[in-house]
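Final report, closing paragraph on structural work. Over the funding period we assembled a curated collection of sequence-structure pairs, and we close with a single example.
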Amino acid sequence: MVTAARAARQTSRVVTLPVGHSSTRTRIARLAIGWVFFANGAALGSWVPHIPDAKHALGLTHGLLGLALLGMAAGSLLGLPLSGVLTARYGSRKTTTAAILAMLLATPLPILASGPPLFAIALGLLGMANGAVDVAMNTQAIAVQDRYGRAIMSGFHGLFSIGGLAGAAAAALAMSAGVVAASHLLASIAVLLLPTFAAIALLLPTTSTAARRDFRLRADRRRARGRARRTGKGSARPRLPAYRPGDRAHHSGRRRPAAVAKFSAKSFRAGCAGSRAARGRSSARLHGDELQPGWRRDRQRSR
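Its predicted structure, as stored:
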């Protein structure tokens, strides 16, 4: 009885609704997280058509623009794992709230930048916020799907695509009407923020003591493995059991990786030979007969 009561208390902290129970609260949460997906796609769709405007306003070359846009990808690489840590620590509701607000507020920053360095920094912040909201909102959507008891994730991803189309269409209309890029982005974000404030208040609360306990447990395991590597008193990975004659499973397990490695090596050599031959043929076809001797040498090496 004590164990059952303790499990009930822990369950009440983790989830607010029973799994598979599609109540009004769950349907409202589905609409709320659906709007978050839509707002994320609409914000990106509103910004992307204005990249040429930012390029001309800052006088960027094609190379500098490519490097600046690379900052957005670098920021996303930082935002994705950070959002995972924050979601495991504080729950998807709080992380989604902070991430989507940061995403919307960071969307007009690149077009408002006064120079290439600020433009690259603004893109990095936008990419970080986009990566953070990507992880958090999908985690929240999984929590809503679990309470529905059926697959509904494709609908959320469809809303993201619809938001992107809506944002791009609105940007095209604004540019055809002669609206300044900064004015359009600020107006779009203002329109998206109002429903977003209402939506984030309706997300499912998923912060749980179990999630924080699992997060601390994984951190303790990582620290223990690190101490074992430094001191040499333990092994980071469990060792395989010693081989015993007649152990069919162990015997087949040791034979299979060797066969796979041998097949992979042969496939790699064959692929390299084929790529060299294809490269020689395409080079000779594009650049004339002067590269044909090199192609013949590649063929001889492949043989």
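The radius of gyration is 27 Å. Confidence is low (pLDDT under 50) at residues 1-21, 238-256, 281-299. We thank the funder for supporting this effort.
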